[in-house]
Design goal:
The complex is a heterodimer of chains A (148) and B (82).
Chain A lengths: L5 E6 L5 H7 L8 E8 L3 E2 L2 E10 L1 H18 L2 E9 L1 E4 L3 E9 L2 H18 L2 E7 L4 E3 L9
Parallel strand pairs in A: 1-5
Antiparallel strand pairs in A: 2-7, 3-4, 4-6, 4-8, 5-7, 8-9
Chain B lengths: L1 E7 L2 H7 L3 E7 L4 H12 L9 E4 L3 E2 L10 E5 L6
Parallel strand pairs in B: 1-5
Antiparallel strand pairs in B: 1-2, 3-4, 3-5
Classes of the chains: A alpha+beta (148), B alpha+beta (82).
């Protein structure tokens, strides 16, 4: 999706919400912009994380993001949306995902932004490998997806 | 009659299979489900079928879907984006 209005990107190099925000022109009729940044943290399930990596089944990940965008714009009047997800290796503190949602008013912008990240985490074929300070590594599961 | 399907492996399935893609011969009438069981036995996949989804030709599909010649399959382990 490369239209100006609804944009889905997978980036294999560092992403910056500030830089993305500079390029994200808010439509004149929008008064609210909600932004989410997912950031790599240094711990998970009690283990110290040294770095992570993401991989994606990109064709389907893009399609599923586009479906999420179609859903969120039916639920609320979101006028412009930007999703950018990293793939490749990330350091602690790196931005893993950026979501911008612009709407006339703040309520829909907040709700829309949250919907997109919540659904992305549950549905989009992206996988994360965590590398721990103790030298081990593991594929992680989103808690909501963990069926065991 | 035999067909060939193209499989892409990601994440822990790729680790277990030791490869990111392959072409596999299947018999007419074979489903994604029976193919997964076969591959799980060959490669020692630890994920039960209940914990994964299947995509056929770049769309989420059903494990009961009957496979066709040149179908492109991806078995999708629990996702962890965001």
């Amino acid at each position: 999706m490369t239209s100006n209005t609804f944009s889905v990107c997978f980036s294999d190099t560092k992403i910056s919400a500030a830089a993305a925000r500079d390029l994200f022109l808010i439509p004149d009729d929008c008064g609210g912009l909600a932004c989410f940044e997912g950031i790599v943290r240094n711990h998970n399930h009690g283990k110290a994380v040294s770095h992570i990596s993401y991989e994606a089944y990109e064709t389907l990940a893009r399609k599923e993001c586009e479906r999420i965008i179609a859903e969120v714009t039916k639920l609320w009047p979101i006028k412009k949306l930007y999703i950018n997800h990293r793939i490749g290796t990330l350091a602690i503190g790196d931005t893993a995902v950026i979501i911008f949602a612009a709407s006339h008013h703040r309520k829909e912008a907040f709700l829309g932004c949250q919907y997109v990240i919540d659904e992305l985490k549950k549905r989009v074929p992206i996988w994360k490998k965590e590398f721990y300070v103790d030298g081990s590594h593991d594929w992680t599961y989103c808690q909501e997806n963990h069926h065991h | 009659m035999t067909f060939k399907v193209n499989i892409q492996y990601f994440a822990m399935l790729r680790d277990a299979a030791g490869k990111s893609a392959e072409q596999v011969t299947i018999s007419a009438g074979e489903t994604a489900s029976s193919l997964y069981y076969r591959l799980a036995e060959t490669y020692g996949f630890k994920l039960p079928k209940e914990n994964i989804r299947v995509a056929i030709n770049e769309e989420f599909s059903d494990f009961n879907a009957e496979l066709k010649d040149q179908d492109r399959l991806v078995f999708i382990p629990p996702v962890a984006g965001g």
